[in-house]
Specification:
- Strands 8-7-4-5-25-26-23-38 form an eight-stranded mixed beta sheet, with no helix packed on it. It has an eight-stranded mixed beta sheet with strand order 24-27-22-21-39-37-30-31, covered by helices on one side.
- The N and C termini lie far apart (174 Å).
- With 859 residues, the protein is of the alpha+beta class.
- Helix 10 packs antiparallel against helix 11.
- The protein is built from 13 helices and 39 strands.
């Protein structure tokens, strides 16, 4: 029997492969299981490769897009990227219009120049320098001096940030040049940029008329008013001359106005309409108030302006506050026609106007026009020497602007102008001139006045209506082809004061400046001893020291004491020689100062003028630093035949930073060169803050006036001038002292008792270390009818100016000129005729030829 194992008895290892029917699925499963793991690995590898490829492609696309964008940006940057290290806007002056091509500058008046600047590559620290130059680029000489002036200020620019840099600009009155050179210098003095601007010279008799309005375009009609145009030139060319240069700036963020009050002298009138007062910076607000008190005119158009100005810096100087709304019709506005010589042409309204009642209670207002129910239409208020005027209606009403009588209302009522007369030439052209024939009178266009600039200016006051040529007898000069009287031709009186810049111009030749210069010359006179004087003094010294000294002590029996007396004799003779030879300042530096303090009624700020004389025995470059932000200074012209030996030099009016962070700069006048044994002089002005006001109050139902000195200054030799020929002297007036003055009884009584007599005779006006009689006489002679003026002197120091190097010897004296009141307002003056009334009357061609003549040819 076969003993080989059977299939059932075989072990699993010995089992044969299964047949197709039962073993194939097992082997396929094992194979698939092994393939599945490999497949997953392959799929994972493939997925990773695909992801890597997709990511790389995406990254490449992104990089390509970024590169393309960068290339496009670089290509665009080639056009827009600045190629210069600095960018500059136009050089502008204040006040100005934003879109005016040329800026106007008035010779003899200070102006603020502004330049918009940006550093494109890096932060920059340097200086911005400006100066008036001739067409050849040479600096312009100051009037009557060997000095030239440039302005300089720090230029601290952050990269890619715009900054407006302000500098002081001054044009001498006798200079015909109108180019200003501007340079940007690095901290090392390297010229980084320079340019020249061509400016428009504003004529002497012309001033700025600035419109501060929300809708400034509505006032373009001002350019068409005869009130704007000057008498001379207007017959043939209305653009040749003008009383005012109207400026219509578009104000969005900042007003293009100066921030220094003494830079407002070129502006005569400001018109305000619905402008937010917060758009003016605090320095601009203070400057406008100072401008008003020294003669500025502010016209406020109602009704919206009064609500905006409530609680503002102007509320305290306005003649009225806002009241209720008011509908105005033809009957309400009819009284406005009374100011026109052609009062038959009434103001007609197409539909009622929306106006506002003027609340004039407790406002010291003067009503210029009112309706039949005594409701004020136009009111004014005196503010120092200036005035503010408010209307109850809008000055842009179409019915008003198109009314033929509006020009007469604007001239006589709003501007308080002197009477005019319209004339016609043979060419059938109508012109307008002053009714009394005076031509080009700056004193009739601007009311700005400063005692040290304008005192002694010859001007003819407007004649009364009953004294006009057409009312009285024959004028001294007549031109006429008709029955109507012709214009009375008088000298150009307003410009005979010797200044070319018009009223309120910086003037070293004004009467006050001339008298101050003479006083400084007398105070600092140096008398060099003659040879014979030296020999006499030397002989006397030897005689006293040797024989006389020995004889005296020999007679006393103490000859040895002669040795002790010898040094004492030498000291006494040394002092005697210095005293007699007047060499007490001959071997050192000295400073002499005359100050004039001008005060306006009820105002706690003064206009302070300093005239300083500097003497040095050795050549010295002086620096004058002024602490007040309103201060300006220039070398003081020596005048004719004044013995100084100043070499030609360029002084710099420099603004230095107070700190490294604050954008505030005090002013320095540097490089004031004074030669050996010579004198140099400085003329500086500023607005000086007082401790309080100087008040002059009329006590009700009496002839007593109360005078209170709140200025903080001790006043001496006080003189009250009502009649210039009979002043009243009340002695001293201490700070915070009050006196009750009876002009009838000629007595003054203090609060604590003590009565004084008012002495009508003139007292000695000695002012401490200096005599200022001539300035006192000038201030006394300038008192106008109805004005009350206080004249005094003070020994109090007025800080604010530091001179380097300091003088070992100094003398100073200050005169106070205070306007206590200007008297009641004058009545409104009406024009002789209107443009419509000229008719067919002809004026002789000789009149036309005369009107064409320059002002200097006026007889």
């Amino acid at each position: 029997m076969d003993e080989s194992p059977g299939i059932d008895n075989l072990s699993p290892q010995d089992q044969p492969p299964s047949s197709a029917s039962n073993g194939e699925p097992v082997r396929r499963f094992a194979f698939l299981r092994r393939r599945w793991k490999s497949s997953l690995l392959i799929v994972a590898v493939i997925a990773a490769l695909v992801t890597l490829i997709v990511r790389r492609s995406t990254q490449d696309a992104t990089n390509a897009a970024r590169i393309a964008a960068q290339e496009a940006l670089d290509e665009d940057s080639k056009v827009k990227r600045p190629i210069d290290p600095f960018s500059f806007g136009p050089f502008t002056l204040r006040p100005s219009e934003t879109d005016r091509v040329e800026s106007g500058i008035k010779p003899g008046h200070w102006t603020t120049g502004s330049l918009e600047t940006r550093a494109n590559f890096d932060d920059f620290r340097g200086d911005l320098v400006t100066e008036m130059v001739t067409p050849t680029g040479d600096p312009v000489d100051l009037d009557g001096q060997a000095f030239r002036m440039r302005s300089s200020r720090p230029a601290l620019l952050a990269k890619m940030q715009k900054k407006i840099l302000d500098v002081e600009v001054f044009t001498p009155t006798h200079s015909p040049h109108r180019q200003i050179a501007t340079r940007l210098l690095s901290s090392g003095g390297r010229d980084m940029w320079n340019a020249r601007e061509l400016l428009t010279l504003v004529p002497n008799e012309q001033f700025f008329f600035v419109v501060l309005a929300q809708q400034v375009e509505d006032y373009r009609y001002l350019h068409t008013l005869d009130s704007i145009w000057a008498p001379r030139g207007s017959i043939e060319d209305r653009g040749a001359q003008a009383h005012y240069r109207v400026l219509l700036p578009k104000i969005t963020a900042a007003a293009p106005l100066p921030e220094q009050p003494l830079f407002w002298t070129n502006t005569a009138v400001v018109l305000w309409d619905s402008l937010d007062p917060k758009l003016l910076t605090p320095p601009q607000q203070q400057a406008m108030l100072d401008w008003l008190h020294w003669g500025g005119q502010l016209i406020v158009s109602g009704p919206d302006s009064l609500d905006l100005l409530r609680g503002s810096f102007l509320e305290g100087v306005l003649p009225a506050g806002p009241g209720d709304s008011w509908e105005m019709g033809t009957d309400t506005l009819a009284p406005l026609a009374r100011v026109s010589p052609d009062d038959s042409r009434k103001l007609q309204t197409a539909q009622p106007w929306t106006g506002q009642h003027l609340n004039t209670a407790d406002r010291a207002a003067n009503i210029l026009a009112e309706d039949d129910s005594n409701q004020a239409l136009v009111a004014e208020r005196a503010v120092g020497r200036g005035r503010t005027v408010v209307t109850a209606f809008r000055l842009t009403q179409r019915d008003l602007v198109e009314w033929p009588g509006y020009d007469a209302l604007f001239h006589s009522l709003l501007l308080r102008g002197t009477p005019r007369r319209f004339v016609k030439s043979y060419e059938d052209k109508v012109g307008v001139g002053w009714a009394d024939g005076v031509l080009d009178d700056s004193a009739r266009v601007s009311q700005m006045r400063f005692f040290t600039r304008d005192a002694g200016r010859l001007a003819i006051a407007p004649p009364a209506l009953d004294q006009m040529p057409w009312k009285g007898g024959l004028p001294p000069r007549r031109f006429s082809n008709s029955a109507d009287p012709a214009m009375l031709i008088l000298p150009n009186a307003g410009e005979l004061g010797g200044v070319n810049g018009g009223v309120a111009a910086w003037d070293d030749q004004s009467q006050a400046s001339q008298k101050a210069r003479e006083l400084l010359r007398e105070a600092a006179a140096i008398s060099v001893p003659r040879a014979m004087f030296v020999l006499y003094m030397l002989g006397a010294y030897i005689f006293v020291l040797v024989p006389l000294n020995w004889l005296v002590f020999r007679s006393l029996g103490r000859v040895e004491w002669a040795w002790v007396a010898a040094p004492l004799i030498a000291i006494v003779f040394g002092g005697l020689v210095v005293r007699l030879a007047q060499l007490d300042i001959g071997f050192d530096r000295s400073a002499t100062e005359i100050a004039v303090v001008e005060i306006q009624p009820e105002y706690a700020r003064a206009h302070l003028t300093r005239y300083s004389l500097l003497y040095t025995s050795l050549a010295t470059n002086y620096s004058v630093e002024m602490a007040s932000p309103s201060a300006v200074a220039l070398p003081f012209a020596s005048g004719i035949n004044f013995p100084v030996r100043q070499s030609r030099a360029t002084v710099t009016l420099r603004q230095e930073p107070v700190t490294t962070t604050a954008d505030q700069y005090p002013l320095q006048l540097t490089n004031l060169a004074v030669s050996s044994n010579a004198t140099g002089m400085v003329h500086s002005e500023e607005m000086y803050p007082l401790a309080g006001r100087l008040q002059w109050t009329h006590l009700v139902d009496s002839d007593v006036y109360r005078l209170h000195n709140g200025t903080g200054l001790d006043l001496r030799k006080v003189m009250i001038v009502i009649d210039r020929d009979k002043p009243f002297h009340i002695g001293s007036l201490a700070a915070d002292e009050t006196l009750d003055i009876s002009l009838t009884a000629r007595t003054a009584r203090g609060k604590n008792g003590g009565e004084r007599n008012l002495v009508p005779e003139k007292e000695n006006a000695a002012t401490g270390p200096l005599e200022l009689d001539s300035l006192v006489d000038l201030a006394q002679s300038e008192v106008a009818a109805g004005e009350v003026r206080l004249i005094a002197w003070t020994g109090d120091e007025l800080p604010g100016v530091t001179i380097t190097p300091a003088a070992t010897q100094s003398r100073r004296a200050s005169i106070v000129v205070a306007h206590l009141t200007y008297g009641p307002a004058l009545p409104i003056q009406i024009d002789f005729n209107s443009r419509a009334q000229v008719g067919n009357d002809l004026v002789d061609e000789e009149v036309i030829d005369f009107l064409r003549q320059p002002a200097e040819n006026t007889p």
